[in-house]
User: Fold this.
Amino acid sequence: MSERDRKQKIRETVWRLLEEKGVASFPLPVWGRIPNFKGSSTAAELLINTPEFKGAKVIKSNPDSPQAPVRERVLRRRKLLLVPTPRLKGEFFLFSERAWENPREASRISNFSRFGDRIPLREIPDVDLIIVGSVAVSGDGNRVGKGEGYSELEYAILREQGKVSEKVPVVTTVHSLQVLDQIPWEPFDVPLDVIVTEREVMRVKGVRQKPKGLLLEYLTKEKVLDTPYLLSYLRDTGRLEEILTREKA
Assistant:
């Protein structure tokens, strides 16, 4: 079984488990999503009391539902919040003063364009903390998302542009049922430094090195053409032709 197939089997197991145990939360069904879960607000409260959160001024978060409580708390504490357009269909949103006045509404995906400012890549401030959504995680810092790779692409682009360093902590909030003994990983996967559940804060020991940028050998023409922001970025950095030429060979 390939690593990709193993990851998909893990996703399906966790989606099923969350629904069977009654901890899956809106939007339902959770299949095919970063699953929302009962206890996401409790996990967010635990996260904001960590030194990683308290010491961060600029926080990048995924746009998915289970991390909405985290985004709201970022804004309540008047920190800068960076969120990508879902599925990298457009630029990143930067939330500041306008969002601070209405953090609950601003934290919702449907209101990103109302409360956030679209910001060019070159103007993004240096990021101090990264929040990612996960379908499943393991205690050694591995994770799987919903299988589309957007968190990895976002990280790689920001890393290449010097907006994120190796030392920037990567954190996820999940239900304790999403924490597994083992998860396979591939070179483009971004490892976690901290895992926060509704019960506890888990710090990963001996985190492996994070990807330093985009690994073109893992990008397909279909993925690039279906991701406008990635397509534009590769064109601007002069690497689009390499992928297109490889696909024709």
The chain has two domains: 3-214, 219-249.
